[in-house]
UniProtKB/TrEMBL annotation:
PROSITE patterns: PROKAR_LIPOPROTEIN (PS51257). This is Lipoprotein transmembrane.
Amino acid sequence: MTIRMIAAGVGGALWLAGCATTYSEPPPQARTASVELIRLPGSAPAMLVFDDAKTCTGARVAIPSNTPVRPVRVLADVPTTVAANHARVNGNGVYRCAVAVSFVPEAGHRYRLRSQYPEGEHTCRAALTESTDGTTWRPVVARYRQWSGQATCPVLTDADIGRLRDRTHSPDGATTLNDLKDLM
């Protein structure tokens, strides 16, 4: 591990420490779902959970950078926003990028937040999948938003939340009946 990599990790941790506190999971008796951060080679993003899903405010660190990944429990049936927050050395610079993903988790479901920060690019990406059995995974109806530091992300509207609650999406998760209303 190079000095630059270590400096980026420390800098990323300090950057996170300034803008987020530790996430507290719901009580054991609450209706919950679990979200697991999938780290791809070459990156070690932190996972954040927001107090306010609509505006990405009140960031809480659920999984810090460079720590083991574990499933994180979140409340079910309410709008939830999680983010993968990257700090990476690329060439001579340290790049920071975060993608917030808003969705309405279903009780007992498992979710995977897979985040990418491709080499040579200054944009990170994320994809959220869900499973009821832990073996078959499918895309989730979700809203993806860029998020940066202590700034808020574009507001999640009541109409957006309605679309996220729509459980009638196609098997591939790409289309909902609401998306097809213009064709009817």
